[in-house]
């Protein structure tokens, strides 16, 4: 279920990160800067969702500070290497499928 753009609500549901946290992360991390449409609503792309999932892993799961997460993202960008775990884009796709299936189940 790939889309070109996602709303903040959709991204919040896919990533399991509250919308207010996403807005805060925008102010702290240069890597996260979704565009806004004519109505002023945030429009997230696939890359933004991948960044959010990386941040979620660093901050919420590995307990990095925001400063530590910034440094980790910078190191990753400079080296071009990522940690040898489940790729972020695969995690995102799996979460999207989970949300889709959950919504489908509710309709049954």
UniProtKB/TrEMBL annotation:
Pfam families associated with the record: MerR_1
InterPro entries in alphabetical order: DNA-bd_dom_put_sf, MerR-type_HTH_dom, MerR_fam
Alphabetical UniProt keywords: DNA-binding
Boundaries of every HTH merR-type domain copy: 5-75
Residue stretches in coiled coil: none
Cross-referenced PROSITE patterns: HTH_MERR_2
PANTHER family: BLL5018 PROTEIN (PTHR30204:SF15), REDOX-CYCLING DRUG-SENSING TRANSCRIPTIONAL ACTIVATOR SOXR (PTHR30204)
Name of the featured protein: MerR family transcriptional regulator
Organism: Fodinibius salicampi
